[in-house]
Specification:
It contains 13 helices and 13 strands. With 379 residues, the chain is an alpha/beta fold.
């Protein structure tokens, strides 16, 4: 950003623990890329036991981390930092997010932004104003609304929900962490993802049915919170959790990796998952479910293979040669490096922030701090 490095405060679900969430890796990649540009960053997250037990990055080198037990401690300890920051950005799924957002908007003197890493889920609950982490009335108060979903959803955010400036800020990957690794192939097809009810049907169709139909092939599912009553075929290995440092080796151990998209995100389209970019960066060929806008990120049939049924998966495993699959993975890696790294997202982030700052300087637009009162008492 012009004028030297900025002080940025981010309030997010988690940075220190990737257990059971995709937010941590998204924040880590983006904030590391911003720190490389000289920006000073404080990340604030609620200190909850399930993340405290599984912190795989308790003290990141690229930013400061502040933990708080409740909203009162957040206000007591960090009000001055939020007030002095050039930019304060709150993310989706922050615990008690409505109260936190009121406090942020009432305290910050710099630019305010919301980063929605769950946009279709957010909008579905905002329609009835039942979103636990964002109230409908708060959407227009943020000067920027970053969304990990692009396409028509951005227009909907502005026209239906009153967002002042809705801009795409897709997930990404850090090329220093994700790259091809030469390891022995252990599995014909793998999948990484936390359990969700709406993804389990597609997982059954595109992973468990193909596994049951060919016991000679090897499959693996990595991710937390899968119910114990799920029956896994004998040739499907289970890994409860993989820290990000283990992701690259996990991808490299697969002939193909599977990408599945939650139903709300499939319906909205233009919602690539962080795992999609990570796998592509590792040069591993990807089998993906189909959704609108996929071709904006990778070319189906050339850089990624779309599968809609168990038969499609079986055909890919049996008919696509090792060399063809490898070439597809290499093409996807080139596209990921050219368009989808964290540095590309940092470019987009800076571009949109600078646009708002330039407009504010021309019009003396009031900040979020002047648009409402705090929902938390700072003492």
């Amino acid at each position: 950003m012009s004028g030297g490095p900025f002080d940025i405060v981010v309030l997010g679900l988690s940075l220190t623990s990737s257990w059971g969430n995709g937010h941590a890796t998204t924040y880590r990649a983006l904030l590391r890329a911003l720190a490389e540009r000289g920006h000073r960053i404080l990340f604030l997250e609620r200190d909850v036991p399930w993340y405290a037990r599984a912190r795989d990055l308790p003290a990141p080198s690229f930013c400061e981390v502040g933990l708080y037990r409740d909203e009162e401690e957040l206000a007591d300890r960090y009000a001055a930092r939020v007030r002095a920051a050039d930019l304060v950005m709150q993310g989706s799924f922050v615990p008690e997010g409505r109260a936190v957002a009121d406090w942020v908007l009432g305290t910050a003197r710099g630019l305010t932004a919301f980063y929605d890493i769950d946009t279709p889920v957010t909008l579905a609950s905002l329609q009835s104003d039942e979103c636990a982490y964002l109230a409908r009335r708060q959407v227009p108060r943020f000067e920027l609304y970053f969304s990990f979903t692009g396409g028509p959803t951005l227009r909907r955010l502005e026209s239906e929900f009153g967002a002042r400036r809705a801009r795409a800020l897709y997930c990404s990957f850090d090329p220093d962490d994700y790259f091809p690794e030469q390891v022995a192939t252990r599995w014909d097809l793998g999948y990484m993802g936390t359990y969700s009810t709406d993804r389990q049907g597609p997982l059954n169709e595109l992973m468990l049915l193909p596994a049951a139909s060919d016991p000679a092939r090897r499959f693996v599912v990595a991710g937390a919170l899968y119910p114990p009553e799920i029956t896994w075929p004998g040739n499907v290995a289970r890994i409860e959790h993989l820290a990000p440092a283990e992701h690259r080796g996990f991808y490299a151990s697969q002939r193909w990796t599977l990408n599945l998209t939650r139903s709300d995100m499939k319906a909205a389209g233009y919602s690539p998952s962080v795992r999609l970019f990570e796998a592509a960066a590792c040069g591993v060929p990807v089998l993906s479910d189909d959704w609108k806008g996929l071709e904006e990120f990778f070319r189906p049939g050339e850089e990624i293979l779309v599968v809609r049924s168990a038969a499609d998966v079986v055909n890919a495993l049996g008919r696509v040669s090792v060399d063809e699959a490898r070439q597809m993975g290499q093409r996807a890696r080139r596209r990921a490096l050219e368009q989808h790294t964290a540095r590309h997202r940092a470019d987009a982030f800076e571009h949109h922030v600078l646009q708002v700052l330039a407009r504010r300087s021309r019009t003396a637009e009031p900040t979020g701090a002047r648009l409402g009162d705090s929902g938390i008492t700072a003492r």
